[in-house]
Specification:
With 138 residues, the protein is mainly α. Helices cover 86% and strands 0% of the residues. The chain contains five helices and no strands.
Length: 138
Amino acid sequence: MGCSAVFQLPIDTLADRWSRRGTLLLLCAVTIAGAALLPSLAGSRLTLWPLLFVWGPASRGVYTLALIELGTTFEGAALVADNAGFAVMWGFGGLLGPPLVGLVLHGTGPRGLPAALGAIYAMLFLVAALRRWPAMAR
């Protein structure tokens, strides 16, 4: 969690000065790469901790970018309603995600966790890459 706090400002700055879409795609790519590397780097603390130092903030930075997108796309009552909808969907993900990933783990073993996380972020990457973004979202 501490790493995420350290990376929060650089991620936000990158999104503001470069591109929110580009930053989202970059964070998804780093998260996918981290998921792919995790099984081979997990055997050594020398390689695991640096991976987790970068991988955790990249995966959590997506949440921040989603909130930034909400705040710049909507205002007033629409912002309140959409933020509530976002929170409900986040809750559904938190409720349904662990059992579904647990099923993957049951069927594939320990390597199923990074594979499932990588697949989730790969889907997000595709949606973000193919989505039409409003002009203000850069």
